[in-house]
Amino acid sequence: MWEWVHPTLHFVALGLLLAVNAAGVVLVVLQMPGTWLMVAATAVVSWWTWDSGGPTIGVWTVLVMLGLALFGEAVETFSGAAAAHRAGGSKRGIVIATIAAVAGAIVGSMAWPLVGTILGACVGAALGAMLGDRWAGRSWREATDAARGAALGRFWGTLGKIVVAAVMWIVAAVAVFWP
Length: 179
Known about the structure:
- This protein is mainly α.
- It contains 6 helices and no strands.
- Helix 2 (34-48) runs antiparallel to helix 3 (59-86).
- The relative contact order is 0.17.
- The mean pLDDT is 87.
C-alpha cells in the first residue's frame, strides 16, 4: 500500500513517534491525557508503516499500549479514592476529592508548572475530601484523616501513572528498534 514511501521518511516517522511519545510522558506529569496521545500516535504510525517494507509497529504493540493506558487511568483515578476510603472517607468526600484534584492540578500548573501540577492535584484531593466529609456530617478528625489519605493516594496514583507512561515509551522504543 505504501510502497512509494521513501525509507528515510519511514525512519523519520518512527523517530517522530518516539518524540511524540516522550511529549506524552510530559503531558502525564502535567495531569493531561498523554497516555492517550501515545496510543493514538503509535496506532497511526502502525497503520502508516504497515506495508512500507521497513520495520513496522505491530498490532500487538498498539494493544499493549492501549492496555497500559487503561491501567494507568485506573491507577491514577482509583488510588486516591481507595486511600481516602481506607482512611474512612465518605463517598461524597471521595467524589469531591476526585473533582477537586483536577481543579487543583489546573491551578497548580498555572502557579508552578510540573511540580505545581502534582502538588495542586494532591492539595485539591485533600481539600475536596475534607469538604465532602464535613458536608456528609463527619467530624474534623475523620475529615482530616480522609484528606490525608486522598492526598497521599493521589500522589502515589500520579507517580504510578507517570511510571506507566514511561513504560509505554519503552514499549514503543523497543517496537521501533527491535521489530
